[in-house]
Amino acid sequence: MVVPEPRGWRTARPHAVRLARAAKPHVVRGTRAVVHATRAVATRSMKLTTLQLTAGAAAFGLALSAGAVAAAGPWDSSGQRTAEQDWAASHDREGGADHGRGSGTASGTAQGAPKPAPSAASVLTGLGGSVPAPTEQALADVLAPLLRAPALGSDRTAAVVDVTTGKTLYGLGADDALTPASTTKIATAAAALSAAGPDHRIETRTVLQPDSKEVVLVGGGDPTLTAHKDTNGYASLRTLAADTAAALKKRDVDEVTVAYDTSLYSGPALHPIGVNTNLAPVSALMVDEARLDGSSSGPADRGADPASDAAKAFEQLLADHGVRTTSAAPVKASGKADSLAAVDSPPLSTLVERMLTNSDNDIAEALARQVALAAGEPASFEGAETAVRAALDKLGLPLDGARFADGSGLNRDDRLTAHLLTALLAKAASPSHPELRSIVTGLPVAGFTGTLRTRYADDTPGTGVVRAKTGTLTGVNTLAGTVVDTDGRLLAFAFLATATTDPTGAQRALDTTASALATCGCR
Question: Where is this region: Disordered (predicted)?
Fold first, then answer.
């Protein structure tokens, strides 16, 4: 089985390579890729079993082929083997994640751009199998005392599911709906990937209004549109300005007014939590998530009017290309306007991974609105809630008691059950739903990436084998993800706690409980 390496592991992989070379300078070339990858986990948690290292590597999308790993070829820009692409192409399987600019299915994909690279088989196909699953009673004996920790407050629910069979192995109030905090993003991701598709890209474009010299910057809902010189693969406002200036010069236009169009979205722009460093006003047009400090993740002060700020930045970039500009009020672009230029976001699969790894609220709200647009609903908080629920219902998920008041989980009116979260994770790991793969690959890796990077110590059993989405609000602590147990069985889990008073203690209790699954054969 050949499977792709997720982006999150790239930060650990160079260190693993150096360690492996120092320890085994004469390791055979055919096994070097596996050794390098697994040592990244082994050096952090020496208590892992061979089965966990092997199955964990598969779960995390590392290359584990039988015999000739090196022959699979180098990694491409998205972590997929080039040989894997060739194999899939020979079987006429198209689709997949991040494989080159303009390769998506969005209506604005540039003419002549490369087609989506073919996808390989599901990253989790080989897990489970003949390895026995934990028994329900043995699992309860391990988890029940841990879930009674006082730090978890008065209300706590839990569920553990065997990913291979879909069988629920443990449940504690698993059908009781609680405030999920940022684990809501798992549901948002599943809805977006199923409704719009993993290859869909979000377009930002410019048009010239009829019989005028008014350029309109039209927002398509891409919060990752960036004005930085180093785009890191995201859509570039600089490129859009350069291409727009070139198109204007072909028309002998060197002076324009610049307006902007945010009409794709409706309803209030401000989240119910109000002005907050965790989220910009939700707009169809923004640059760098309206961050004022140059950061790309985490809390930051935001501009009060992201669309206006984006238009001003665009004007300056046009001026840099010799186009004189004056500002105009927001407008709705005419249907008869001439197209000037366009840039596309990475595919939704990439946005999902970034959202889950960094718990990015701006991307979450944007993805929820992409679900609404795909369903023909208003791109608003209310329209997104209707559309997300409908998309998850089509996937056959248990939605009793669930509410999706926003896409990010910042709204305390959100409600999810542990049963729903584990069902989402099991669905994402299923070979029958490859379109949901980036949910699994986007989950933070305990002790290595994202919001779990600093939460697991080197000697914690869950380090490297727990992948989970965190959730934190005042009085709310949640954790939902996957873990490989000591027998190599892949389990999905969800732990939700409300009325917590010690956030650090609650996080530690949840991490300890997830780690217990990693050390559990439980039979």
Answer: 73-128
